[in-house]
Design goal:
- With 137 residues, the chain is an all-beta fold.
- It has strands at residues 3-4, 13-17, 38-39, 46-66, 68-76, 85-91, 99-104, 109-120, 126-136.
- Strand 5 and strand 6 form a beta hairpin.
- The two termini are 14 Å apart.
Length: 137
């Protein structure tokens, strides 16, 4: 069974964010609590990078968000977060409810995952959780 590697418990960290709202920090994305969230501060695109504890073989990536119209998922296998490759883009329809988006990525390897909120339905968007499922290499 695949494990969620995007959690503090499994050694993940948020390496980078495009914005910082102190009352809703990006670390909320990996805290395991769906009631907390990272809040963007306007203008798109907005992005964050999750550093995994080691390189894994990906199964899927899912995102729980609000007010996101399109999200791009990228991966990097290198020891440092450079040279990201696209996994894919997901378009969303829901505007105000929690949105669940996911993308299959079987067999691809990653040490870092970049999530880019390309468009939103509102000026601000929120990300409640990111799950990165996979297995160790």
């Amino acid at each position: 069974m695949a494990s969620n590697y995007a959690s503090k418990v499994n050694g993940a960290s948020v390496q980078m964010t495009s914005c910082n709202e102190p009352s809703h920090p990006a670390t909320n994305i990996i805290d395991g609590n769906r009631r907390t969230f990272w809040l963007t501060t306007g203008i798109y695109p907005q992005e964050f990078v999750i550093s995994l504890s080691s390189t894994i073989t990906l199964s899927s990536i899912s995102l729980l968000s609000q007010n996101v119209a399109a999200v791009r998922f990228q991966r990097c296998e290198k020891p440092q977060p450079v040279q990201f490759e696209d996994i894919g883009v997901v378009s969303l329809e829901s505007r105000h409810d929690l949105q669940e988006s996911s993308i299959e990525c079987s067999g691809q390897s990653a040490r870092f995952i970049k999530v880019i909120l390309e468009k939103g339905f509102e000026e601000f968007a929120a990300v409640h959780e990111c799950q990165i499922l996979g297995s160790p290499q």
